[in-house]
Design brief:
- The chain is an alpha/beta fold and 379 residues long.
- The chain has a single domain, classed as TIM Barrel (Alpha-Beta Barrel), CATH 3.20.20.140.
- Helix content is 37%, strand content 26%.
- It is built from 13 helices and 16 strands.
- Strands 1, 2, 3, 4, 5, 14, 15 and 16 form an 8-stranded mixed beta sheet that branches. Strands 6-7-8-9-10-11-12-13 form an 8-stranded parallel beta sheet.
- Strand 1 and strand 2 form a beta hairpin.
- The longest helix is centred in the middle third of the chain and has 33 residues.
- The relative contact order is 0.16.
């Protein structure tokens, strides 16, 4: 039976940090001891941090690899493998790859269907053991779209859909309450004229009025069919959160206001914020700062969003802010695992999967030295 002992390490346990050793055998943690002794044959970590592998619930990173430049459709197998390797290299051992469902194929400023095909390619690589880490799907369901129901119908319970997030990017509300922010983003990305942008906005609003309620009901039903966790996205008001709670939502992605975050806490809904928001000191959309929610005790989970390396960096940053490294690391390990029902990972304890990272701090910045998945080194 294969065995590895990491000794003389700073172990980030669920509720405390200790100096000790951790024994891994046949893909699982079998023993945890305190002390700085280094048994014969053990890996001497020289005080480096050993923490659970990071769990990423929302990242658009795969899309960045698929389209590294506007108009460039990179070979998908190569893009998926590179994405997987990047995540392993920054300590992420479980990822819920975010794919948009709900497209607008007609008209300038729209966007095409892609999720089903890309998911099939990713899952095929997983079945061939070509990927280093554990991959699930996170379907970002856009209710302000034309094709949502048809796209979701193409997925089933065998597709490892772990999260479905209910998104509504209708102009004038939620993330895009400030139309000027949306205008700068869309006109730059889609190369629209003023006239084309105005037509685009009118089309989106008409589409939401015509299809939005039916789409929202379909998303709730489809998440149940997949057996997936249903999440909200960009809740802004008490009313938004009340609707989310009525749907059975227990995970809120990026609430945009303190009001919404407090309402989530009152309804028992976990609050997830983006690591770039925390690290940069605020949201690019002008929404509530993650640091403010952290200071108020309203931040439960962190996602890397669009910068994978930000996940570990944000957790260590929160540990410094709170004066509690175990609490900071929990926002990217135990808390996301609990939110999606993964009881076999996200914590250093006997019997758990040996998804581990070894981390050093270089001038305060965390650096992943090694990543292990099921006891096998992958980076």
């Amino acid at each position: 039976m294969s065995q590895t002992i990491f000794a003389n390490a700073t172990l980030v346990l669920p509720d405390q940090v200790i100096r000790g050793a951790i024994r891994v055998q046949d893909g699982h943690i079998t023993d945890i001891d305190s002390g700085s002794a280094v048994p014969a044959g053990a890996v001497d970590c020289s005080g480096d941090i050993i923490a659970p592998g990071l769990i990423e619930l929302h990242t658009d990173n795969l899309e960045r690899h698929i389209q590294p430049r506007p108009g460039v459709d990179w070979p998908h197998a190569s893009a998926i493998i590179a994405h997987d390797a990047e995540l392993a290299g920054v300590g992420i051992t479980t990822v819920f790859d975010a794919l948009r469902v709900g497209s607008i194929p007609s008209g300038k400023g729209g966007y095409m269907v892609y999720a089903r095909g890309l998911a099939s390619e990713l899952l095929a690589l997983r079945d061939r053991d070509a990927l280093r880490i554990s991959h699930f799907l996170h379907l970002r369901a856009e209710v302000c779209s034309e094709t949502l129901i048809e796209e979701m119908a193409a997925f089933g319970r065998d597709d490892r859909v772990g999260i479905v997030s209910l998104m509504d990017h209708t102009p004038g509300q939620r993330q895009f309450r400030d139309i000027s922010k949306l205008k700068a983003y869309v006109m730059g990305k889609k190369n629209l004229s003023e006239t084309e942008f105005a037509a685009h906005i009118a089309n989106l609003k008409e589409m939401r009025d015509r299809l939005g309620d039916r789409h929202e009901a379909a998303v709730v039903a489809e998440a149940a069919r997949f057996g997936a966790v249903l999440a909200s996205h960009d809740d802004t008001t008490d009313a938004h959160v009340a609707v989310s709670a009525a749907h059975g939502i227990r995970l809120a992605e990026f609430p945009t206001t303190v009001e919404a975050a407090r309402a989530c806490r009152a309804h028992g809904i976990a609050v997830m914020m983006g690591a770039p928001n925390l690290i940069r000191g605020g949201s690019h959309s002008g929404n509530v700062a993650a640091r403010d929610l952290a200071d108020m005790g309203l931040l439960d989970i962190v996602s890397s969003d669009y910068v994978p390396s930000a996940l570990l960096m944000s957790a260590v940053m929160l540990g410094d802010i709170w004066g509690d490294l175990a609490r900071g690391i929990a926002t990217v390990t135990r808390a996301p695992a609990d939110a999606v029902g993964l009881i076999d990972r996200g914590r250093l304890q006997t019997g758990a999967r040996a998804d581990l990272i070894r981390v050093a701090r270089v001038d305060g910045t965390p650096m992943v030295r090694e990543t292990w998945v099921r006891g096998r080194r992958v980076a």
